[in-house]
Amino acid sequence: MSREPVLTVTERGIWCPAGGFFIDPWRPVDRAVITHGHSDHARPGHAAYLCTPAAAPAIRARLGDVAVQVLDYGVPLTIGGATVSLHPAGHLPGSAQVRVAAGGEVWVVSGDYKTEADGLCEPFEPVRCHTFVTECTFGLPVFRWPPQAAVAASIRAWWAQAAAEGRVALVGAYSLGKAQRLIAALGGPDAPGPILTHGAVGAMTDVLRAQGLPLPPTTAAAAAADNPSRSRGALVVAPPAALGSPWARRFGPAPMAMVSGWMQLRGVRRRRGLGSGFVLSDHADWDGLNAAVAATGATRVLATHGYTAAFARWLTDRGLEAGVLATEFAGEPEEAP
Fold this sequence. Notes:
Layout: E1 8-9, E2 14-16, E3 21-23, E4 32-33, E5 49-51, H1 56-63, E6 68-70, E7 77-79, E8 82-88, E9 96-102, E10 105-109, E11 131-136, H2 148-164, E12 169-172, H3 178-186, E13 195-197, H4 199-210, E14 219-220, H5 221-224, H6 228-231, E15 235-238, H7 246-249, E16 256-259, H8 266-271, E17 276-278, H9 286-296, E18 300-306, H10 308-317, E19 321-324
Parallel strand pairs: 3-4, 4-5, 5-6, 10-11, 11-18, 12-15, 12-16, 13-14, 13-15, 16-17, 18-19
Antiparallel strand pairs: 1-2, 2-3, 7-8, 8-9, 9-10
């Protein structure tokens, strides 16, 4: 008789039969283990949430006064007939991979992850397992990230040019994680000007700053938008959806750019009507995905959200048992191509 898998997919999400819990479920459930606070992974309506201490504040800020239990990285927790532990995913502060051991097998659900340390969140740690459920948002060879220090230098030079012309520069970045990564990399005493934040970015920045993250000072963009003396030469960090909106036009004629892994594709930048685009992602690139898979030692790999079929075929051709795990995760919706 075949053994029941450690994890399976139902209409509500990724389900652990032995433990009676879901991982990042997309419909309301009694108990949800949450990898991180982005909206496609931490959804409203669950009776109880389990996450890392560093992920909890953003989840509460987004979802309200929900019942959250926290679990430190690497600490095992028995839930029913399964043992669960959380391990750094490197995606944003507090993000986690979920290790589930049951029936003599170990499965790991990656959530979203990146393998290159960014100096802001806990670095990715590979976890040995039999089956690895991996995201593959950027699971094609075309996606290989340039050095992040070089990208930051390019953004700073672009901003400095706008500041020298007495203009504001507007940059689009996801409100939780990417925006704070930019603020940390670009702010400080040698910055070309002040950093202003859209309300959504400012709210998440305040949450992370309250957790002790060393983020440079920022100012609410709304308070400076109609005051040229306060906004001249500034970098305005906003959600990508705000670029080109009436809100953005309050700053006058201004260069606009988006910061995303999708900027690797020229056609995406052209369709969005952006003058500039910078390749910086909070997801693993092609090389990072392959390195992560190899480091787990897994003989079975299930790909989810992204170029799943192509990545699974690639792994199968290299001798692994690989397939697609269909989910409702979408990556960062504001970054979609």
